């Protein structure tokens, strides 16, 4: 079953424009590494220094573990570390070592509408 995970990271002061520039086109080998890890989509929104990520994958914990072992991702993390200060941590929803990165879902329109439809 596919899952969608939200993340929140914070940029280093003054690195906002540069972060967007390097994400205009990320390296092809990184796209391949994300695909190998089971990530089917990754979207990022920015508000000031705050980044909000939405990751679609089969298994978030497994995907993060695969990326932790991938030298392509290691190179990217070293590079992008010049821009990103840190990822916020939370109590997270998925189980496993990456759970502290995942934002807990509060509400979904579609889920509530479906539940209301089942009741009526």
UniProtKB/TrEMBL annotation:
It comes from Streptomyces cuspidosporus. This is L-rhamnose mutarotase. It comes from the Bacteria.
């Amino acid at each position: 079953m596919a899952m969608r995970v939200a993340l929140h990271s914070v940029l280093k002061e003054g690195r906002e424009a540069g972060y967007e520039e390097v994400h205009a086109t990320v390296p092809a080998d990184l796209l391949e590494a994300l695909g190998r890890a089971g990530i089917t989509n990754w979207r990022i929104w920015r508000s000031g220094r705050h980044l909000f990520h939405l990751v679609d994958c089969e298994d978030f914990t497994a995907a993060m573990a695969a990326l932790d072992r991938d030298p392509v991702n290691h190179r990217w993390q070293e590079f992008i570390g010049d821009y990103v200060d840190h990822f916020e941590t939370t109590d997270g929803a998925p189980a496993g070592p990456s759970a502290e990165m995942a934002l807990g879902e509060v509400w979904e329109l579609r889920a509530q509408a479906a539940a209301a439809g089942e009741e009526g």
